[in-house]
């Protein structure tokens, strides 16, 4: 297949986003005699992070090191205070697993488990080497083991979240790739905070869908099928089969159709205007046991830190005044 070949007969590469917010590009080495030109399209200079906040009890909480031994749960990973992805209805009914522990816990155990002073959000931490992500570092591996609600085999969501599938279930797959310096899609997702919240069900679907749609508005100066209520083929004819899935049929329609009182419909020109930008989708878990006032301060600080991080990586990114 030659669909992805550029004018020089080479596969067109694309920048992705690494852990920490860096723009990354994979270079394939060739023989010195290979002088065929390779084109690289530079990433946009602007980033607008899209931040998702879960509902109450939708965030993962962990226990402090001092509190873990007091609960005496030898059959459960001790650091868990609340992990909605780990609490299945079957376990609750049978009294097994993490859900079973909650069902059988005493009032005293529950109080110890949900102590606001001995719990915190389960953040994703990682090892750095010269200010860059180290996928083989001890801190990274420990965090990856705890954040398996976003599975290691999460598929890439191009263009930002990886283009190289990783299959750790294949024997010696990781060993053959060492020293691996690139981040997998799962690790980028964890850095984005996706594993801080309940990833199964609607939350995970929403995060993946938003990531896919927001960063695939235009391809080769053409509006992608994602953004057409009924996409057209190369001859401009309407297609009855919509693959990949499209966004709501109300897209690019009169706003009055979905309850607005005024306003103009989004046009293809509007989409092309906003397309030259990265829209990385982040999630931020929060300590729902504490007051909203305290958690709001933490979230605000994290947003400022996220913006500062993107600015440090050379992107235009700003917190707009309200």
Count of DSSP strands:
11
Q: Describe the biggest sheet?
A: 3 strands, antiparallel
* Count of separate structural domains: 2
Shape: globular
As an assembly, this protein is single chain
Query: Count of helices?
Result: 10
Please state the structural category. Answer: alpha+beta
Mean pLDDT: 84
Cα Rg: 23 Å
Question: Which range does the strand content fall in?
Answer: 5-15%
Helix content: 25-40%
Task: Provide structural commentary.
The protein is an alpha+beta fold. It has two domains: 16-55 and 122-214 and 278-312, no CATH class; 61-121, no CATH class. The chain has ten helices and eleven strands. The chain has helices at residues 68-71, 89-94, 97-104, 107-113, 138-146, 173-177, 185-191, 202-214, 268-274, 292-312, and strands at residues 16-17, 23-24, 50-52, 61-63, 80-82, 119-121, 127-129, 132-134, 218-219, 222-223, 281-283. The chain has a three-stranded antiparallel beta sheet, with no helix packed on it. The protein has a two-stranded antiparallel ribbon with strand order 1-2. A hairpin with a 2-residue loop joins strand 7 and strand 8. It is globular, with a radius of gyration of 23 Å. The protein starts with 15 loop residues before the first strand and ends in a 10-residue tail after the last helix. The model is unreliable at 167-171 (pLDDT under 50).
């Amino acid at each position: 297949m030659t669909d992805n070949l550029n004018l020089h007969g080479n596969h067109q590469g694309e920048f992705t986003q690494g852990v920490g917010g860096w723009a990354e590009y994979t270079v394939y080495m060739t023989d010195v005699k290979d002088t065929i030109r390779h084109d690289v399209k530079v990433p946009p200079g602007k980033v607008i992070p899209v931040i998702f906040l879960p509902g109450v009890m939708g965030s993962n909480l962990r226990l402090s090191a001092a509190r873990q031994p007091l609960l005496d749960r030898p059959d459960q990973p001790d650091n868990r205070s609340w992990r909605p992805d780990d609490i299945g209805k079957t376990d609750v009914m049978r009294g097994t697993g993490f859900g079973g522990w909650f069902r059988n816990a005493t009032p005293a155990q529950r109080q110890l488990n949900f102590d606001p002073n001995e719990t915190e959000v389960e953040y994703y931490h990682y090892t750095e080497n010269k200010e860059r992500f180290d996928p083989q570092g001890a801190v990274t591996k420990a965090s990856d083991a705890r954040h398996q609600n976003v599975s290691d085999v999460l598929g890439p969501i191009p263009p930002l979240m990886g283009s190289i599938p990783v299959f750790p279930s294949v024997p010696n797959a990781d060993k053959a790739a060492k020293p691996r310096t690139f981040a997998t899609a799962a690790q980028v997702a964890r850095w984005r905070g996706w594993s801080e919240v309940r990833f199964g069900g609607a939350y995970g679907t929403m995060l993946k869908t938003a990531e896919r749609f927001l960063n695939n508005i235009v391809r080769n100066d053409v509006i992608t099928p994602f953004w057409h209520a009924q996409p057209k083929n190369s001859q401009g004819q309407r297609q009855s089969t919509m693959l990949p899935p499209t966004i709501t049929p109300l897209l690019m329609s009169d706003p009055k159709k979905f309850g607005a009182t005024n306003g103009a419909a989004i046009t293809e020109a509007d989409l092309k205007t906003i397309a030259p930008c990265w829209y990385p989708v982040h999630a931020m878990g929060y300590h729902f046991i504490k007051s909203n006032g305290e958690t709001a301060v933490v979230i605000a600080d994290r947003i400022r830190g996220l913006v500062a991080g993107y600015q440090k990586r050379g992107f235009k990114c700003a917190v707009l005044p309200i």
